[in-house]
Amino acid sequence: MDVRKFAVEETGVLELRGANDEPLIGEDGKPMTITGFGPGSKTYAQAQAENQNRMIDKLKRKGKTEQSAADKARELAEFLAACTKEFSANIEYDGLQGEALFKAVYSDASIGFIAEQFAKWLNDWSSFRTASTTS
Question: What is the pTM assigned to this prediction?
Answer without folding.
Answer: 0.87
